[in-house]
Every structure is written in structure tokens, then in C-alpha cells.
């Protein structure tokens, strides 16, 4: 029998970016909050002098232990789903701070087009432009409504960047100037400008200068050390939840953090929730945490899984296209071209997770799709994240991947290889979804989440288009050899692609087609809010974190409204 703990006004499940933001905003308003995190606590001291590529980048020290919990995967319903046994396609974070600890720090805002994508697509091209099995829908909110929350996230993390006419409009300037421009980035910009495009320095949470945010938290200036992605920042120069929103919540005196608390189920009586059940991962003891409001802010997959396990909301059925929990799982469509230079060398050893230059001429609906057989697009960019020695071995495809020839070529091209890449948008498809696996269970005996996902014709055509654009810019940079592959084939769960998973508990203006309203409040459970990229009705051609931050700030406003007027939708 579960041990019942003292009641709290709000319980936040998962303490990463979304959970930290909501905890900070609620506690500043005087609301008592407990944060439950199944991992251990992390502080800045844990990452000092920890530039260990083997430990973090290859052995995934900050990631989820798949021997205890994983997901199962299949490309389609005719396949048998099998457990993901090794981290590959995406990296599931754990511990306090979540994926916000090991992110790169790239900070683009989704475009106005994204939030009203179905309406705007039909308005410009007609309804026939959207395939019948593409479950595309508006988000139930406009960019103008969400822009103040984007601005608040930028001010909290101190985003460094510069304006561009094709990116989302801003009500205020970037809090800090753009990062340094390297020779590789200038070469990309010159080539893009020669082609008539509009390059700019990307928005970054690796800050260009020391910054104090409105809550009094200080973020240091980036040292360009190359240890961002998969690492915690030992300089405290990459904005993350551990140095921003979590200390802000703690300083109010209204926040309690409980680690090693793995939430298994949300209590639900058919109308409301009264709290959550969790296991102490060290002792195996079960606890019940009662609360007036429950906020799920775990990773995309776990938000969906918790709702399905708790039987809250209507599970999505791809055969009937009815139900909402598990619907519209999306990923990202990657494309790239690689250039090899025989004589020219670049200082690629230095870098940062969000040090880069980009163009948005082929993102969103910034270009005419009338003669294209796909919608949306993606950012085209070059990033200088820093090359680390163990995992960096760029060689042309005609070089053997082993032996003396490989070693010589690897050393030669180490500083002579540049990649121009596109992060393409992912549109929802009727048969790409999440549900509970009927066969496999985790270490606690709970069913694993099952992912059914494959690239669609929309994805393949978008990838081919973006690959051509990447190669075009790269060719203008004058490498000696270019390699690019337009065919992305079928989706594979193993090779790393991106950690940008979205959907499953999507937001919208209609309870029939969405799980939460635009304050991320469950239509079917008024005192349950579900925040994170699980709310995205599709994935844009950008990194998702700033949009996660923006909707988390809006959710915090919704929760405060609910406390002022219990029993009503925010």
C-alpha cells in the first residue's frame, strides 16, 4: 500500500526546462510546489572539469538506462515492435534538468506559419495541398498570442543572436549580441549571399557575454570549448534549468525537490486528478503525493505513456482516426551535404553547441510551394559545434572505413571538412503514433511505450529538396569534393539523428482533435496540465526548445488562472 505524503498545491512531474519554468513561475506567485524527478539531482559542481568525451558522448552518462526502461519500435502496423536496446536515433535524458542539461543550446522560434499551419496552407494553396492521411491541424493559438512567452524565455536564458527578415518577428531585441563569427561561418554566409539568400548568426543559449536574467540568475560567457551536446557546461555559460529556473524556484521557499521519484500513475476519478503515485527508485517503496493540481512535464514519450497508463484521455486509434492520446507523433527530417577541402583548413576544434550561421529562405512557407509536392521546409545551416577526437573521423565515401588508408584520410580531413545541413519539418501522418506495447514491460512491470513511425512521401520529397539546397550553398563555398544523398529511405531507430521528438498530447482548439487547450490544460481533466514538446501538433524546421519554453510559460499562466478560479478551463 502506498504511503501518503502531505498534500501540496501543485505537483510537477519531471524537472527539466518545462517543469523548472512552471515551478519557478508558480512558486514566485506563492503557490506551494513539489517537483518529482526520477533521476538524481545535478548541480554545476557535477560538471566542473568533466570534459570526458568517452563518459558523456559515447557512454551516455546523462542518458536514460535502457536496461530498465526503453521504448519499442516498428515502422508500420504489420511489423512486430521490438525494444530499443541502445541509444541511437535520439537521446533520452535523465536526472534533474533533463535534456536541458545536455542540449546544444540552439534557440530559434517557430514561425507564425507553424501555429496556424493548416489554415495558412489552405488559404494560400487550397485544401487539396494537404494529403488525406496528413493529420495536420492548427495549434489553437496564434504567434502573436504566444510571442510574449517566447520573449520571456529569451530573457530568462539570455539568448544571443541577431535579427533576420525571414525569422519570426520579435517584440524586443535579443538580450545579448550574437556569438563570434568564425571563418567557416563567414564562408557560408558569403556563399549564401552570392546566391541571393539571407544568412544570419543563429540564436544561441551559449551566451556571447555574461548576463543576469530578470530573476537574478547569472549565466557566464561561452568559452567555445566544444563540449555542449551530451555534456553539462562546466563554465555555466550554456543556459540550462540547473542555473536558471530551478534555483529561482528554490529561492522562493515554496519549492520542494524530490529525486529518485519515478511516477507510474496519475490518480484520476473520471473527471479530476487528486495526485500521483510514484516509486522511490532506491528502496522500491511506493508513495502517493496528493495535490490540487498535477502538471506533467516529462519527456515527450513519458507524458504520453503516463496518460495511457492512467487511462486519462482517449487513446488514438489510427484505423478510425479517432482519439487523441498518442496522436501526431513527429520527428525531424534531416538532410545534408558534406564538403571536403584539400588545402583550406578551418579551426574546427573550437566551437559551441549553437555556434552557427543559417538561412530561412527554404523554411516554413517562406518560399512558394505551388510547384512542390510537399509543404513546409527547414532551416539550412552550418554549425561549428567543435570536433572531439574520438567520434570525429570525416572521410570521403570512397575511402575504406578501416586500416592505414582510413587513418591517414581521417587525419587529413579532420580540419578540412564542412557540412551544410537542413533540419526539416515533420508533418503528422495518420499511421505515425504512440501507444502502449502489449508485450514488453519495464523493470517495474509497466508496459513500455510503442512507437509506430516511418518517413512518408512528404518527408522524402522535402529531404530531397533540402539536400539540393544544402549542396547548392556548399558548392558556392568551393570545396574540392561534395557528397550528398537525397534518399533518406526508411526511418531507423539506431543511428543518431536528432532528439527532437514531438506530439502525442497535442494542443488545439477542439477537444475532438486535441488533448490539451492552448494553456496545456487537459480537456478531459481540468486540474491536469501537460507541458512539453508532446503538445506540438507537428514539428517545425527548427530546434524545439524555445517553443517548449514559451508554451511552458503560458501553461504557468493557465495554472495560476485555474487556482484563481477552480473548476474552469483556463
UniProtKB/TrEMBL annotation:
Gene3D superfamilies (UniProt xref): FAD/NAD(P)-binding domain
InterPro entries linked to this entry: FAD/NAD-bd_sf, GMC_OxRtase_C
Stretch list, region Disordered: 159-180
Any GO molecular function: oxidoreductase activity, acting on CH-OH group of donors
SUPFAM superfamilies: FAD-linked reductases, C-terminal domain (SSF54373), FAD/NAD(P)-binding domain (SSF51905)
Keywords in alphabetical order: FAD, Flavoprotein, Oxidoreductase
Residue ranges of domain Glucose-methanol-choline oxidoreductase C-terminal in the record: 428-552
Any matching Pfam family: GMC_oxred_C
Highest taxon of the lineage: Bacteria
Stored PANTHER family: LONG-CHAIN-ALCOHOL OXIDASE
Family membership: Belongs to the GMC oxidoreductase family.
Name listed for the protein in its UniProt record: Gluconate 2-dehydrogenase alpha chain
Taxonomic source organism: Salsuginibacillus halophilus
Amino acid at each position: 500500500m502506498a504511503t501518503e505524503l502531505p498534500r501540496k498545491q501543485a505537483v510537477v512531474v519531471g524537472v527539466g526546462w518545462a517543469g523548472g519554468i512552471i515551478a519557478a513561475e508558480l512558486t514566485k506567485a506563492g503557490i506551494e510546489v513539489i517537483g518529482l524527478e526520477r533521476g538524481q539531482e545535478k548541480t554545476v559542481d557535477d560538471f566542473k572539469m568533466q570534459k570526458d568525451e568517452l563518459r558523456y558522448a559515447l557512454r551516455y552518462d546523462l542518458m536514460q538506462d535502457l536496461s530498465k526502461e526503453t521504448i519499442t519500435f516498428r515502422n508500420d502496423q504489420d511489423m512486430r515492435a521490438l525494444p530499443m536496446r541502445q541509444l541511437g536515433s535520439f537521446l533520452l535524458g535523465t536526472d534533474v534538468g533533463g535534456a536541458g542539461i545536455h542540449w546544444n543550446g540552439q534557440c530559434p522560434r517557430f514561425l507564425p506559419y507553424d501555429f496556424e499551419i493548416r489554415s495558412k496552407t489552405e488559404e494560400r494553396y487550397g485544401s487539396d495541398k494537404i494529403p488525406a492521411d496528413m493529420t495536420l491541424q492548427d495549434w489553437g493559438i496564434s504567434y502573436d498570442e504566444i510571442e510574449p512567452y517566447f520573449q520571456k524565455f529569451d530573457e530568462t536564458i539570455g539568448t544571443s543572436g541577431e535579427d533576420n527578415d525571414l525569422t519570426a518577428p520579435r517584440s524586443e531585441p535579443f538580450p545579448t549580441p550574437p556569438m563570434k563569427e568564425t571563418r567557416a561561418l563567414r564562408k557560408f554566409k558569403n556563399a549564401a549571399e552570392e546566391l541571393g539568400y539571407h544568412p544570419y548568426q543563429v540564436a544561441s543559449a551559449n551566451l556571447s557575454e555574461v548576463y543576469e536574467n530578470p530573476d537574478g540568475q547569472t549565466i557566464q560567457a561561452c568559452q567555445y570549448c566544444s563540449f555542449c551536446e551530451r555534456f553539462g557546461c562546466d563554465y555555466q555559460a550554456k543556459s540550462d534549468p540547473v542555473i536558471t529556473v530551478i534555483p529561482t524556484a528554490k529561492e522562493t521557499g515554496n519549492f520542494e525537490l524530490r529525486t529518485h521519484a519515478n511516477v507510474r500513475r496519475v490518480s484520476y476519478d473520471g473527471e479530476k486528478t487528486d495526485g500521483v503515485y510514484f516509486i522511490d527508485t532506491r528502496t522500491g517503496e511506493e508513495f502517493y503525493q496528493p495535490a490540487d493540481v498535477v502538471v506533467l512535464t516529462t519527456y515527450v514519450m513519458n507524458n504520453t505513456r503516463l496518460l495511457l497508463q492512467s487511462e486519462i484521455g482517449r487513446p488514438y486509434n489510427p484505423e478510425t482516426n479517432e482519439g487523441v492520446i498518442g496522436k501526431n507523433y513527429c520527428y525531424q527530417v534531416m538532410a545534408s551535404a558534406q564538403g571536403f577541402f584539400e588545402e583550406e583548413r578551418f579551426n574546427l576544434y573550437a566551437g559551441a553547441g549553437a555556434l552557427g550561421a543559417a538561412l530561412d529562405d527554404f523554411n516554413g512557407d517562406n518560399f512558394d510551394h505551388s510547384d512542390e509536392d510537399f509543404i513546409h521546409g527547414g532551416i539550412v545551416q552550418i554549425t561549428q559545434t567543435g570536433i572531439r577526437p574520438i567520434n570525429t573521423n570525416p572521410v570521403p565515401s570512397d575511402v575504406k572505413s578501416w586500416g592505414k588508408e582510413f587513418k591517414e584520410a581521417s587525419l587529413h580531413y579532420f580540419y578540412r571538412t564542412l557540412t551544410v545541413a537542413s533540419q526539416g519539418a515533420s508533418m503528422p501522418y495518420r499511421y505515425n503514433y504512440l501507444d502502449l506495447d502489449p508485450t514488453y514491460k519495464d523493470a517495474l512491470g509497466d508496459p513500455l511505450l510503442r512507437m509506430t513511425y516511418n518517413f512518408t512521401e512528404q518527408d522524402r520529397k522535402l529531404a530531397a529538396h533540402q539536400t539540393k539546397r544544402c549542396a547548392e550553398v556548399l558548392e558556392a563555398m568551393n570545396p574540392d569534393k561534395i557528397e550528398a544523398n537525397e534518399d533518406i529511405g526508411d526511418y531507423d531507430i539506431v543511428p543518431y539523428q536528432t532528439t527532437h521528438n514531438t506530439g502525442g498530447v497535442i494542443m488545439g482548439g477542439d477537444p475532438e482533435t486535441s488533448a490539451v487547450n492552448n494553456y496545456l490544460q487537459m480537456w478531459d481533466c481540468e486540474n491536469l496540465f501537460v507541458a512539453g514538446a508532446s503538445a506540438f501538433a507537428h514539428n517545425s524546421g527548427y530546434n524545439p526548445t524555445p517553443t517548449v519554453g514559451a508554451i511552458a510559460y503560458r501553461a504557468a499562466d493557465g495554472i495560476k488562472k485555474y487556482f484563481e478560479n477552480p473548476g474552469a478551463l483556463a
